[in-house]
Amino acid sequence: MTSNSLPVSASLHVYDNILQTIGKTPLVRLNRVGRGLPCPLYAKVEFFNPGGSVKDRIALTMIAEAEKSGRLKPGGTVVESTSGNTGVGLAIVCAIKGYKSVFVMPDKMSQEKIQLLRAYGARVVITPTAVAPEDPRSYYSVANRIVAETPNAILANQYHNPENPRSHYATTGPEIWEQTQGKVTDLVVGMGTGGTITGVGRYLKEQNPDVRIVGVDSTGSILLETWQHGGVPDDVEATSYKVEGIGEDFLPSTLDLSVIDEVIRVTDKESFLWTRRLVREESVFCGGSSGSAVAAAVRYAQNLPSDRLVVVILPDSGSRYLSKIFDDKWMRENGYLEAAWGEVSLGDVLAEKSFQGLISVALDDCMTDVIALLKEHDISQVPVLRADGALAGLVTEVDLLKHIVEAGHTHSSDETVASIVQPAPPTFPVYTPLEDVLPTFVEEPVALVTEGERPIGILTKIDVLDFIAREI
Fold this sequence. Notes:
Elements: E1 27-29, E2 41-45, H1 55-69, E3 77-81, H2 85-97, E4 100-106, H3 111-119, E5 123-127, H4 139-149, E6 153-155, H5 163-179, E7 186-190, H6 195-207, E8 212-218, H7 223-229, E9 262-266, H8 268-282, H9 288-301, E10 310-314, H10 328-333, H11 346-351, E11 361-362, H12 367-377, E12 381-385, E13 391-396, H13 397-405, E14 427-429, H14 434-437, H15 440-443, E15 446-451, E16 454-460, H16 461-471
Parallel strand pairs: 2-10, 3-4, 3-6, 4-5, 7-8, 7-10, 8-9, 11-12, 14-15
Antiparallel strand pairs: 1-2, 12-13, 15-16
Helix pairs in contact: 1-2, 1-5, 5-6, 8-9
């Protein structure tokens, strides 16, 4: 330390490096989503860790143990199969300590997690989600192969590394006990690798054997049935699910089932809707597994007496799920959010058309050219514009046909569409909510969309129906 360096001080929050800020995360009461519960509900908010998740804790201890044991040597490579958060924690530690890092992730993980890992200088390998753990394409198998092929490389191995639960026994558990002044009676936490629920559960039960430990599993995972039977039943198979970071298709050795008193299963839809509620009602910007945990915690706490104190662990930040949970379009496409047409504009509908521009003709265009244009683009009507770009009206294939077969009329090749232009269809600005325009399509075949008085697109009944069919 140089003469003008500051001394490390926990009370003043002065540290030598970012690793010393891991842990000591706050406990926050959930007042609104817990409204109506008979007992208080508190959240351990783990996105206050520097890597934005609870997994920073295990990353630090796993690498420290690998160094101490001599398995990880200077210049080495750390490899891990991860849903993203453990990778971020490991990437932070590797960046500080000078190790290379490689992370293998299933393809259901959010793009934000992948980009974040690469920002720390890590290499990311993507593997298919819907394969068995023993499949050579699974992210467990690929991680093992990379270790075998890379000199001076180790597998962090969060699913079977005892440092995973040990880190929570040493840090997360004592923090919760101290923060609640020993009053915690129930802990609700998601089960993935099992490290968090095992480590924290062991510590709290040592302080008070009556503390109940409640695990949260995802629909599609096998952990609930595994807990019920004390092992993986032969007739149980995992199915796919969207929530990240909880649930498994095998039993990690880091998960001690004997610590758990109850398991509650939560669907993807519940998880994501509760996640959004946490942000909107509590301003706690967390991820999907946090929504799973809170959904289970609220369900569990409803029947508790008033003298209980429930703590739920929120594993990570919502910043990693902006393109999924917090994207209305993604939520609607996956059936988690009902279509809200008041939030959809005509511009949104136009953007989904295969051809988003406006095909138009002029008043002095020849009918034969307009007929060829309709045929070329497979359309049945076209807006007609004046010389200054203003809308003159509409010409349809029906108008053209009526004119051509009209008795007693002599046609010429240079005949223009000016004589058959019909009044312009209903016209709406691009920002108009689709909900406001839907009644128009009951009476009218098309609507024109404008931007600053200039026509920019045309919507037909089938355009609107196609958009709605894809959104619901």
